[in-house]
Amino acid sequence: MANRTAVGIVGAGPAGLFLSHLLQREGIDCVILESRTRAHVEGRVRAGVLEQGTVDLMHELGAGERLRRECMVDQALDIRFSGRLIHLDLPGLTNGKVVTIYGQQEVVKDLIAARLKAGGRIEFEAEVIALDGIDGDRPAIRYRKDGKEETLTCDFIAGCDGFHGVCRGAIPDGVLTLYDSIYPFGWLGILSESPPLKEMTYANHERGFALCSRRSPRISRLYVQCTPDEDLSLWPDARIWDELHIRIGDEGRSDLKEGRIFQKGVTPVRSFVAAPMRHGRLFLAGDAAHIVPPTGAKGLNLAAADVRVLARALAEFFSTGSNVRLERYSDTCLRRVWKVVRFSNYMTSLLHRFPSHTPFDRRVQLAELDYVLTSRAGGTTIAENYVGLPFEDF
Fold first, then answer.
1. Distance between CA 191 and CA 77 in Å, rounded?
2. Can you give the pTM of this predicted structure?
3. DSSP 83
4. Computed from CA positions of residues 145, 146, 151, 155, in that sequence, does the dihedral angle turn out positive or negative?
5. Radius of gyration (Cα) for the chain, nearest Å?
6. What is the Cα–Cα distance from 69 to 372, expressed in whole angstroms?
7. Which residues of the chain have pLDDT under 50?
8. Tally of CA atoms within 13 A in the half-sphere of 79 that contains its CB
9. What are the domain boundaries of the chain?
10. Tag placement on the chain: N or C end, fewer CB within 10 Å?
11. 355 CB burial (10 A radius; 0-12, 13-18, 19+)
């Protein structure tokens, strides 16, 4: 049947695409339904800090050729505060591990191209309307494409459609426990035609947080802490550059090179976890189940970790009929999710100025930074979380 598959995947973001490749490798048929156009999906600019495990997964799946040619490898992480510098040697603190800079949209392009080349099915502009029968053994996805309503019947459904998707909402009321924390600030982010700093650089300043990262040898990705509802009209380019120089301690304006700003926007900062990540034959993965502050650079990596667990569980089911790993899917993923939430919250609390901070709170924050500066154990804690915790065996 043309509209029958083993696993129906909702969403062609990193979670859904990685899952499709992992299932294809196991010989499990799957179909991806994506509401947007291919051009829109491939053009969505997101963060691009990849953990070692995510990079290894790209290569394992045969989708890492362009990544190998075009990526940038970060072997250090810098944190500036009060005129001081924490320089974390990532390989030295983590037995040789590094992080890789490669935009999320580039990962998505590579995974889509590899999926289509292998004959895999992705239905773009297929708007999912509802999920039916997720409590039974033949769930179905109803969607609209080319003005007609279609139904995709499955054995399982993977909800990889992001925070605002339909899949999480298809779970009956009272099943999920939602954990949510909305931070009292946002990130004003820009893309600039300017050579980036040598190292990924975080800054804690009296005026607020700043981050200097990169997208290529010629493109910088830069952020300053702002209010969640910041009016961008109040931030002309000159003000953004002034604020960045101040917050990273570049008084002589010699470290940070300025260039044409060609993208500008405000990103809210929040944590969100929905548990359990499974109901019946529906499994949530990636942003559909959890959001973490961007401070830890974990969103895409956590999605890849989720579907690695899910693919292994589905492979066991289809090869042996056992649902042991499927039953453990949510608990296994949530152990890692909460560790990542902890780290992202730690970095967010360490580096930002909170409106509620008292002088006491500020001194404790600076003392923590001083501890990381002077303690190998403190630096190792950040480094080993930043490069990515080991995958859990289950």
1. 20
2. 0.94
3. T
4. negative
5. 22
6. 34
7. 1
8. 25
9. 7-179+270-387
10. N
11. exposed
The H-assigned helical ranges of the chain are 14-25, 38-43, 52-60, 65-70, 90-93, 104-117, 237-247, 299-320, 324-351, 359-374, 376-387
- Residues 200 and 222: their CA atoms lie apart, in Å, by 10
At 365, list the tokens: 């924050």
The confidence score (pLDDT) of residue 45 equals 76
pLDDT at 347 (0 to 100) = 97
> How far, in Å, are 123, 237, 280, 296 from residue 28 at the CA level?
17, 50, 19, 33
Complete edge-to-edge strand list for the sheet that includes strand 278-279: 121-123, 30-33, 7-10, 156-159, 282-284, 278-279
7-179+270-387 CATH choice from 3.60.150.10, 3.40.50.10800, 3.20.20.70, 3.50.50.60: 3.50.50.60
- Residue 1 confidence (pLDDT): 44
Looking at residue 70, its amino acid is E
CB contact set of 60 (below 8 Å; sequence gap of 6+): none
